[in-house]
Specification:
With 364 residues, the protein is of the alpha/beta class. The protein has helices at 2-41, 44-53, 68-81, 106-109, 112-117, 173-182, 261-264, 300-314, 354-363; strands at residues 58-63, 87-92, 97-100, 119-120, 137-138, 140-143, 151-153, 157-164, 189-191, 197-199, 231-234, 236-240, 245-252, 323-324, 341-346. The strands form four sheets. The protein has a seven-stranded mixed beta sheet, with helices on both faces. A three-stranded mixed beta sheet has the order 6-3-7, with no helix packed on it. A hairpin with a 5-residue loop joins strand 9 (189-191) and strand 10. The termini are far apart. 37% of the residues are buried.
């Protein structure tokens, strides 16, 4: 009798084990479904905030917002909130504005009377898709949180921002990366001794004198010594904290205001004032599309894509397989965080994040 009971229990055990396995699978499926539902209910701002703070190695974000205060506040949020070991690439463009460095005196840097009475075309495309002429903008003025000199932004200028661990930062590192991207459009670009990016406007050098094409500090074109001086197309500024380093800069691609920028940034009061503060170093400027024969002229979005590709090459990432932060993690990998690279197009919806909204109000 006891033997019969024991045998019956032995035959029941496999069934109970199978039921337990099925139950675990059901629970796992319900857990995955609940997480996906929760993720789909999250706002874009909440998804962005979650992605930025996750332990992801690399991030690539492109802003569709054209407001300088919003973009600088998003940049500051990335600087403060991104994971300490991550590297972030952030690209954005602003409507016409003048951006002063943190420690600069605006009365020494800007021609205020000219700015007040002037309007500026925002984009090199003067005619809109509907055939109407684009209206010029009033020029905003704002102070950023990093050092450096005063710069002019419009929609013919692409801004890049790279945030990384301080241990991996040096001033030429990302300027060299951006030069590699610019050279897809204009091979005259190089990094100079001030860590700016310039174009060498002279004649091509003899074959014997030409440097290695991979040398981002020399080009195959002459400059100085009786020829035209280099023209600056990108200036940079920096901000360092204990956990993060920020390098951001401009790229004058095809600015419609190129001929007037020096006038906006030349104060008539400078000869008559002495004041504390960091003064800008003035240099002759040009557009990246100068000295190139491609027709029709390339669009600024091409430079945007080239910088993203240079960034992904630098970190051995697949530029065609960047993980969109707005999409939920894949159930196929058990909802593990994607640890290689998250990316996405962002806009003013991120003002729903309190820190970004407060940062914009502070700058305004």
């Amino acid at each position: 009798m006891h033997v019969g009971i024991s045998a019956r229990r032995d035959t029941e055990r496999p069934m109970r084990t199978g039921h337990m396995a099925d139950l675990r699978n059901v629970r796992a499926a319900l857990y995955v479904t609940a997480l996906l539902i929760r993720y789909h209910c999250m706002s874009v701002a909440a998804r962005f905030s979650r992605a930025v703070t996750a332990p992801v190695n690399h991030h690539v974000y492109v802003s569709q917002c054209q407001d300088v205060a919003t973009n600088l506040s998003i940049e500051h949020y990335l600087f403060q909130k991104s994971h300490p070991e991550s590297t972030v690439l952030f690209l954005y463009m602003n409507r016409p504005c003048i951006v002063l460095g943190r420690n600069q005196n605006p009365w020494l840097e800007v021609n205020h009377s000219l700015v007040r009475r002037s309007t500026a075309p925002a984009s090199p495309l003067r005619t809109l898709s509907d055939g109407n002429r684009q209206q010029d903008d009033k020029i905003k003025m704002i102070r950023r949180r990093s050092g450096g000199g005063t710069v002019f932004h419009d929609l013919g200028n692409l801004n890049f921002s790279i945030i990384c661990p301080p241990a991996t930062f040096h001033r030429d590192k990302y300027a060299e990366m951006v030069v590699q991207a610019i050279r897809k459009t204009n091979p005259r670009a190089r990094v100079n001794e001030r860590h700016d990016i310039v174009l060498d406007p002279g004649e091509p050098l003899n074959t014997v004198d030409r440097p290695d094409p991979e040398d981002t500090h020399r080009t195959a074109y002459a400059y100085g010594n009786g020829t035209l001086e280099p023209r600056k197309v990108s200036g940079s500024a920096y901000k360092l904290s204990r956990l993060r380093a920020l390098h951001h800069g401009t790229c004058l691609f095809n600015s419609p205001n190129i001929s007037g920028i020096s006038e906006y940034l030349r104060s008539p009061a400078r000869p008559y004032m002495k004041a504390r503060g960091v003064e800008s170093v003035r240099s002759p400027i040009a557009n990246i599309t100068d000295h190139q024969s491609e027709s029709p002229s390339p669009m600024i979005q091409s430079l945007q894509q080239q910088i993203i590709e240079a960034f992904t090459r630098k970190y051995n990432l697949d530029s065609n397989n960047l993980y969109p932060f707005s999409e939920p993690p894949s159930p196929a990998v058990g909802l593990k965080e994607h640890t290689q690279c998250t990316s996405g197009v962002i806009d003013a919806k991120l003002l729903e994040i309190p820190e970004i909204s407060a940062g914009r109000a502070e700058l305004e």
